[in-house]
Amino acid sequence: MSDLLRIATAGSVDDGKSTLVGRLLYDTKSVLIDQFDAVTKASESRGLDAPDLSLLVDGLRAEREQGITIDVAYRYFATPKRSFILADTPGHVQYTRNTVSGASTAQLVILLVDARKGVIEQTRRHAAVLALLGVPRLVLAVNKIDLVPDSARIFEAISAEFNELTSSLGWKPENVVEIPVSALHGDNIASRSERTGFYNGPTLIEHLESVPAHGESEAASGTIGLRFPVQYVIRPRTAEYPDYRGYAGQVAAGAVRVGDEVVISPAGQRTTVAGIDTADGPLEVAEAGRSVTLILADDVDASRGDLIASPDVSEPVSELEGTVCWLADKPLKAGARLLLKHGTRTIPAIVGELIERFDEQNLSADPQPESLELNDIGQISIRLAEAISVDEYVADRTAGSFLLIDPSSGNTLAAGLVGDALRAVELNRA
Questions:
Q1: What is the residue range of the signal peptide feature (predicted)?
Q2: Nearest to residue 320, comparing CAs of 186, 202, 216, 417?
Q3: Alpha-carbon distance values, 405 to 321, 349, 413 (Å)
Q4: 21 versus 69: which is more confidently predicted?
Q5: Which one, of 361, 353, 249, 363, lies nearest residue 307 by Cα?
Q6: Distance between CA atoms of residues 259 and 88, nearest Å
Q7: Rounded CA gap, 192 and 181, in Å?
Q8: Terminal C-alpha separation, the chain
Q9: Cα–Cα distance between 407 and 415 in angstroms, integer?
Q10: Distant-in-sequence, close-in-space partners of 224: CB < 8 Å, separation ≥ 6
């Protein structure tokens, strides 16, 4: 089992997400004494009998109330069994795009609902976005379970409705877990609650500690070989290293070993890996996520933006289709001239056709929309000024993703998934 799990939180406004995140930090002893003392004093000044743990992350909430541009906040905590990186995403509907950013690398997402409200519109929106992103596992945290009468019946009803939703979105039942919790009182977070005698499953932390770090969609990454976008060419030209030429970057997918045959894309040149260098010394093998410098056996023409890949790499294409989440206030329309960033390569592109827009509430597709508005998700075609090799997102979440960028301002306009991510969802297509 990996000792690191990347998780994210999502949920509607006032579902108690800030309190849950604060509770996770507190119960795993990831809060400094002076931080907790400050929270205790602030809570007492408000007339509260107990520390308000949401104040541990209240700085971000205050930013939201001021209307400041919000990005994802990352929290770090650990238990004796595992370390965690948590992407804390905003709950407001206008920040759905931040859910995309925070959940894009998550191996598990904790989706909160208020037990008094159940599955609502924002719950369905978040679940649909997480399905498109290929998040392997979900936890539905039915929060504020202490505030509802007949909690067993309500929990069962919410779980049944959520299971129906996630099944239609493509998740297998074993990859979705529902847990009744009270973030305020700590029920079923780190310890079991006597108030939920009807529930005999794991606590939230027990589940986070035991869940496999890799889900089925990530296992699919093993179906493609090496993908290594060249970030920088290292040529010291010193007396000690007069002829050294190394290609620095991060292994985006697959693995690379000394002696492996590789292809330089898009040129198509073939060579072998003569060495793998790191700051800590040479390696025999480097896997996805490792930053290394590759030494190639032949003097090939490779530079920043090129892709060093295993021979299974696809033929370069000058047109592709992708699923995008539009992040800008100005709508996207056919014919827009943008920049597409894939790996370390950024090239001019033109949006061809807006194929369909995703209706996350009805799980339906609206064909050929006139535009994609802020937070809209849709399938589009893109023409590229230069041919590139791409992999579908369903095969690898890293190698199959891209960004659309405003060429004049440099602002990111959309997060994109190569291929038709919408096909993972059972859509009613007109």
A1: none
A2: 417
A3: 17, 10, 5
A4: 21
A5: 249
A6: 42
A7: 9
A8: 44
A9: 15
A10: 253, 254, 310, 312, 391, 395, 396, 399
Mapped onto helix, strand or coil, the DSSP state of residue 296 is strand
Task: Give 318-357 pLDDT, tens digit per residue.
Answer: 999 999 999 899 999 999 999 999 999 999 999 999 999 9
User: Residue for token digits 């929309």?
Assistant: 369
Strand partners, 346: 341
Q: Are 106 and 139 in contact (CB under 8 A)?
A: no
CB 322 within 8 A of CB 380: yes
pLDDT at 93: 63
CA–CA separation, 42 and 294 (whole Å): 53
Report how many helices (DSSP H) and strands (DSSP E) the chain contains, helices first: 8, 22
How many Å apart are CA 356 and CA 359, to the nearest integer? 10
Q: Which of 67-76, 172-181, 186-195, 388-397 has the lowest mean pLDDT?
A: 67-76
Q: Which domains does the chain have, with CATH numbers?
A: 4-214 (3.40.50.300), 227-309 (2.40.30.10), 317-424 (2.40.30.10)
The verdict on pTM exceeding 0.85 is no
Q: Where are the beta strands (DSSP E) in 163-306?
A: 176-180, 227-234, 246-250, 255-257, 261-265, 269-277, 285-287, 291-296
- Residue 207 phi, psi dihedral angles, 5° rounding: -65, -45
Q: What's at 158, amino acid-wise? A: I
Identify whether the C-beta of residue 295 lies closer than 8 Å to the C-beta of residue 246: yes
Please state, in angstroms and rounded to a whole number, the distance separating the CA atoms of residues 369 and 356. Answer: 6
**Nearest of 212, 213, 205 to residue 29 by alpha carbon:** 205
How far apart are the C-alpha atoms of 59 and 65, rounded to whole Å? 10
Cα–Cα nearest to 74, from 168, 151, 7:
7
pLDDT in tens, 247-274: 999 999 999 999 999 999 999 999 999 9
In tens, the pLDDT along 374-393 reads 888 999 999 999 999 999 99
Secondary structure class of 216 (helix, strand, coil): helix
Q: What amino acid is encoded at 268 in this protein?
A: G
The helix (run of H) or strand (run of E) holding residue 86 is strand 83-88
Sign of CA dihedral 415, 417, 423, 425: negative
